[in-house]
Amino acid sequence: MKTRIMNKDLSMEVLRDGLTARDVLTNKVNSGGRDDKDDAFFVCDLGDVVNKYKKWVSCLPVWSLSTLSSATTAPMSYRYWPTWGLASTVLARLTEVQKVLNLGVGPDRIVYANPCKQTSHIRYAKKNEVNLMTFDNEDELHKIKNYFPDACLLLRILPPAAEAQCQLGMKFGCHPSQAPKLLEVAAQLDLNVVGVSFHVGSGCLEASAFARGVESAKRIFNIADQYGFDFDMLDIGGGFPGQESAAISFDEIVADLGPALDEHFPPGSGVRIIAEPGRFFVASAFTVAVNIVAKRMVARDIQEFKDDEAEDAVMNSVAPSLCEEPAFMYYVNDGVYGSFNCLLYDHAAVTPTLMRDVDKEEPLFSTSVWGPTCDGLDRIMEHCLLPELQVGDWILFEDMGAYTMAAASTFNGFGKPSCYYVADANMWGSNNHAFIQSAGSAHRHVKDSAITLPAMKRGLCALERLGITQIPSVAVPEV
Ligand SMILES: Cc1ncc(COP(=O)(O)O)c(C=O)c1O
């Protein structure tokens, strides 16, 4: 049994009696409850987002969490963040500031985390009392002096080099050796620098990078008073993995990061620690289902000819028989100009899953999967092995929550997939008591791991200081 919660723009299904997100997806594929029967669509399991939140607050001792609205534009997935006490990171756009302010997030809980800001946006931040912002260069300091001299500033530094899915260091962050000069200029301009921020790179591939970032930040804290600053904020950024298949796990990061924070910024230090996880919260919550709209059988071997040889082979009818060596090209109704832009922008790798069981004896064929637009670039998978599929079959791609629909376009007139939200009744409707208890038991669970006691205490404290008073209720407020 499921309860459908609706308002004019959004609906969410509360799942009961063991019904799962996958069941909902299957029902929708079988066209139960969908008008646009063969359009691609997302299912978002909001219970997964709640679980991530529980995991975070029970493992990491942060004073406040910022969540990146750019990682997903799916409204329901960040709608409750203010309820949970999460602030919101604001990146490039004015509209993102507006969006989170409209959600009821106090301006004092927003980090304007773009170190290179448009001046009108700085003015907007001032007007709306969004006081906390980052900088990483001297010109930015002059801009801030002109347009928002009372702002509280975080110096964004380059963390020590680390492998990451998306490197950010080539664009943002000053080398720590430049920090003294920037602090000197900030002091001359009488600006208020309150701390340090860093981002190890999105989808970081080295668990130890976070702890090394903390050490690097600490060195800047150590020299701040020479310039008359009394730092009290550390922003450890994002970069945390969002899915099980990631190269490193959140637990591995915590095992390094927890002790590093304890050592360099212990609870009594008076330093508020904030973080900006983006993909961590949303990546695994979303699955996209795409429909095969067209299919082409090609000779597998012909793809191994050089272009001109292939053409000659076809012209002279010497191409291998399609029947002997078939490969399949499937054209589906979402692609790299849509949700799969993550292949280009996020350097993501995606894995297809079929809706049906595959018999062990069933032959597998060389397969490529293509998006719907007229562009040859629009290819989701160059090669994978799949059983033969038919037009009208569905292919699922899991872990599609981060940096997917957020950057999707409507190129060639193809619309963006709709998103259906579901959440398990126990997860979504549980009361605060149960939530705190479960977060508490998670604490007990991690006690045996490498997380040190002060860090755990601070984590518990974070729950109270985040002012969590209720788990989101099932009533969906107006947009
Ligand atoms: C300033 C800033 N904060 C946070 C994030 C979120 O990073 P992630 O999704 O890797 O956690 C990003 C991503 O680009 C960012 O640029």
TrEMBL record:
Ligase: present as a keyword of the record? no
Instruction: List the GO biological process terms.
Output: putrescine biosynthetic process from arginine, via ornithine
Q: Which Gene3D superfamilies match?
A: Alanine racemase, Lyase, Ornithine Decarboxylase, Chain A, domain 1
Domain Orn/DAP/Arg decarboxylase 2 N-terminal as annotated: residue spans: 92-283
Q: Which domain of life is it from?
A: Eukaryota
Question: Could you give a GO molecular-function term held by this entry?
Answer: ornithine decarboxylase activity
Single GO cellular component annotation? cytoplasm
Which keywords does UniProt give here?
Answer: Lyase, Pyridoxal phosphate
Annotated Orn/DAP/Arg decarboxylase 2 C-terminal domain ranges read: 42-401
Q: Which cofactor does it need?
A: pyridoxal 5'-phosphate
Give start-end ranges for the coiled-coil region(s). Answer: none
State the family it belongs to: Belongs to the Orn/Lys/Arg decarboxylase class-II family.
Function summary: Catalyzes the first and rate-limiting step of polyamine biosynthesis that converts ornithine into putrescine, which is the precursor for the polyamines, spermidine and spermine. Polyamines are essential for cell proliferation and are implicated in cellular processes, ranging from DNA replication to apoptosis.
Put simply, this protein is called: ODC1 protein
